[in-house]
Amino acid sequence: MKKEIGVAVIGLGWMGQVHGRAYLRLFHHYPESPLRPRLVVAADAVEERARETAELLGFEGWTTDWREAVEHPEVEAVSIATPNYLHREIAVAAARAGKHIWLEKPCGRVPAEVYEIARAVEEARVRSTIGLMYRHVPVVEYAKELIASGALGEITHYRGYFLADYAADPNGALTWRYKLKGAGLGVLGDIMPHTVDLAQNLLGPIESVSAQKEIFIKERPEVPEGMGTGHFVVEGGEMGAVENEDYVSCLVRFASGARGTIENSRVCVGPHVRNAFEVNGTEGALSWDFQRLNELELYRFDGNGERGYKTVYASPKMGDFGRFQPGAGISMGYDDLKVTEAYTFLTSIAEERDLAPGMREIVAAMRVVEAMDRSCESGGWETVGQGVPSERRTGA
C-alpha cells in the first residue's frame, strides 16, 4: 500500500484545476510513484469555485481562506496557483508551516519576492517544485542530450522567444495582470521565466544582458478588483492605465561563449503561444516550437554533402513520452507535462532531495530577469549578479 500524502490546492482557476487533475492522473502514468496524493482541501477566495472544484475533483473539503488549507493538520503538500500578489505570502506561510510547495511561476511580483520564498523554503527544509514544465517536453529533453553530447559541435547562436496574443485585444480587461500592485512585472514576470529557464537548461548560465521594453497598449477597460481569473474582453467602460510591460527583447551572453537573443510579447498578433527556441552549432542546429510540441527540427551534417532540416517526432525513447503514448506520431499535450511535474514534486518529497525545476532553477531565472529589468532602465549591458534587487516595481 502506497504511503498517502495530504494535498491542498490553493487558487482554483484554470491552473489550479490542472494541478488537481494532475494529482488524479498520477498513477495512470507513474504507478511506481512513492506517494499517493490524497486531495484534502480545495481553496479559493470565490466560494462557488471552491465548492464546485471540490465536488468535481473529489477533494474532501473546501475553504475560501487559504490559511485554513496551509494550517490543516492533514495537509503536507500545497499547490499554489493564485495571482502573483499572493505567491509570496502563501508560499512563505506554507514553508514555515512545514508544508512542501508546488508553486506556479513567477513566484511573486518581482525577483525580490522570489528570493524571499527561496530563503523560507531553505530555512524550513521543505521541498519545492516550480511550474517550469516546458523543460519536461520529451523532444526538449532530447535536444538537451544532443547539445550536451557535442552532436551539434560548439554552440554559437541561440534564439528564444515566447510570442503570445492573449493580451492583443485593446478591449482586454484591465485585471491584476496589468498593474504593479497585482502582478509587478509584466511579460518579464509572466512569461520570461519560461524563456530564460529553457535557455539556461539547454546552454547553461546567462552571464550578461542588454534589454529593452515597451507598453504597446497603454490603456484598458477597468473592471472590479478580483473579477475574472483569465483574459476576457470588456466593451465600453472607463479606461485605466496599463502599468507593466507588454514586450521585452534582449541580447544575451552565455557563460559558455554562445551569443543569443530573447524576445517576449503578450500582444503579438498572429502567434498564439509561440514558445520556441533555435540553437545553432558548428556542426548542426535544432529548433522547437510549443505549438508543435511533439516535433523537433534537426539539422546535422550527414557526410554526403546533403544539408537541410528534418523533423524528428517524439517517441518512447525520449524522456517520459512512453508513459503517455506508445509510439511516435501520437501526441502528448500540455496537461501531460503537469502530470510529470506532479510526479517530480512527490518524488522529491519521498526521497528528501531537490529535483529540478525547484527554487534553485526559478531563482537562477529571476536573476536574469532582474538584470533585464535593470538594463531596461539603464539602457546598457547588465551583469547577472547575486545581489537582492529592489522591490520598487510592486507599486505596494
From TrEMBL:
SUPFAM superfamilies per the UniProt record, alphabetical: Glyceraldehyde-3-phosphate dehydrogenase-like, C-terminal domain, NAD(P)-binding Rossmann-fold domains
Pfam hit, one: GFO_IDH_MocA_C3
Positions of the Gfo/Idh/MocA-like oxidoreductase N-terminal domain: 5-130
Keyword Cell inner membrane assigned: no
Signal sequence bounds: none
Protein keywords: Oxidoreductase
GO MF term list: nucleotide binding; oxidoreductase activity
Domain GFO/IDH/MocA-like oxidoreductase: 141-286
Methyltransferase is among the record's keywords: no
Record-linked PANTHER family: BCDNA.GH03377
Protein name: Oxidoreductase
Classification of source organism: Bacteria, Bacillati, Actinomycetota, Rubrobacteria, Rubrobacterales
